[in-house]
Amino acid sequence: MQILRRAEYAAAFLIVLWLYAQSGAGWWWFALLFLVPDITMAGYIFGSRIGALVYNAGHSFLSVAALGMLMYVSGQQWLWPYVLIWAAHIAFDRMLGYGLKYASAFQNTHLGRIGRN
Fold first, then answer.
1. Residue 34: what pLDDT?
2. Are the C-beta atoms of 114 and 97 separated by less than 8 Å?
3. What 3 state SS string does the chain have?
4. What angle do CA 83, 51, 53 make, to 5 degrees?
5. What is the pLDDT of residues 37-88, one digit of tens each?
């Protein structure tokens, strides 16, 4: 099952890359911003409960969808590359096995435990 799940996220990652290529935005911009969602790990400075909340907000497809809807409703098409970069980051993380965090510990994710035991 893990192989299938990772393959699905790899497919999602490739689709988002294709959409990004179609957007005409520069790849240097993609490279520069790809890891920006990981800044949400800083939420763990305030403890695991707040950390998980902040991290999950930055690593949930719901947040990406909200930005996409805001872009669509407001007509702010310039946001499209950011939506795609953010979605690509999440798909890439999930492809590698990094999931949304539980408040119990950073290593406890909805995809299973990560890191060393």
1. 98
2. yes
3. CHHHHHHHHHHHHHHHHHHHHHHCCCHHHHHHHCCHHHHHHHHHHHCHHHHHHHHHHHCCHHHHHHHHHHHHHHCCHHHHHHHHHHHHHHHHHHHCCCCCEECCEEEEECCEECCCC
4. 60
5. 999 999 999 999 999 999 999 999 999 999 999 999 999 999 999 999 999 9
